[in-house]
Amino acid sequence: MRQAATLELYSYWNCLRGARLSPERTEIDPAAIRHVLADTMILEVDEERRFPVRISGTRLNALFLDEQKGNSFTALFAPEERRSVSRMILAVLDESRPVVAGLTAAPKDARPANLELLILPLRHRGKTHSRVLGAITPTAIPSWLGLRPAACLRMVAMRFIDGGDPGPLPPMLRGALPRSPGDLAQRAKIRRRSFFVVAGGRTK
Question: H-helix or E-strand containing 127?
Answer without folding.
Answer: strand 127-138
